[in-house]
Specification:
Helix content is 38%, strand content 13%. By secondary structure, the protein is an alpha+beta fold. The protein has helices spanning 6-9, 22-34, 52-62, 66-69, 75-79, 87-96, and strands at residues 13-16, 40-43, 105-108, 111-114. The protein has a single domain (6-124), classed as Glutaredoxin, CATH 3.40.30. Strands 2-1-3-4 form a four-stranded mixed β-sheet, sandwiched between helices.
């Protein structure tokens, strides 16, 4: 029988992180308090935006529509005149303009939570 490595038994926790966001920093700090550093995958989603498929998967895991997930207060939201847009258009807009993605998002074992408040992510660990 072969030995199973720790990484195979405990899948990584992924955080879509924006270091300029206080909630994102607080959520990452909470994860770092609870987990080993090697168990956390930090994705700077502004530098590496999710694909449409990834974003759609996260919305499904969150149980939210794109309209409930997009940051309506962002200036880009108003510039693109997205107030009456359907979910498909909002998803496309978030893929092209990741600053409109609600943050931070924590993913683990097929589940997702938005770290607002940061402690809400503990439900999926």
């Amino acid at each position: 029988m072969t030995e199973v490595g720790r990484d195979e038994l405990a899948p990584k926790v992924q955080i879509w992180h924006n270091p300029r966001c206080s909630k994102s920093r607080a959520t990452l700090a909470l994860l770092e308090e609870r987990l080993d550093a090697g168990d956390i995958e930090i994705v700077r989603y502004l530098d590496h935006p999710p694909s449409r498929e990834q974003l759609t998967g996260v919305l499904a895991a969150l149980g939210r529509s794109a309209g409930e997930f997009i940051r309506r207060g962002e200036s880009r939201f108003r510039e693109l005149d997205l107030a009456g847009a359907d979910d498909d258009a909002l998803i496309d807009a978030m893929v092209q303009n990741p600053q409109m993605i609600e943050r931070p998002v924590v993913l683990h074992a097929g589940s997702a939570r938005v770290g607002r408040p940061p402690e809400s992510v503990l439900e999926i660990l």
